[in-house]
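Team,

Forwarding the record for the chain on the shared tracking sheet. I've put the sequence and predicted structure together so nobody has to dig through attachments.
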Amino acid sequence: MSDEFKVDLTQLGEFGRVLKKSISDLESARKALSSVSAEQIGTARLDKSCETFQERWKHGTGELKEMIEAVDEGVEKTALSYKELEENLSKGLKQMKETAATNAGER
């Protein structure tokens, strides 16, 4: 049964790091674009479109950042839960082994 379901805690941790980096990358991209003034681009219609895009981009990246942070928090909690489960299971199996050895020695 253990071969059917495995959780790689290292991979789970890496996933969390990737999520955090994606937040940083989104923020960097948004900040880089924010320094470009709409007036520098061209026609009034294009300037307005770029300004609208910039506003939507800022709003969208903010929402995406919140979602990524929530997923990252869940991933961290899940990894911690699996780690604790593995530790507790290991302790329980060791205790069972010690108890069985002690009981075998009493016979």
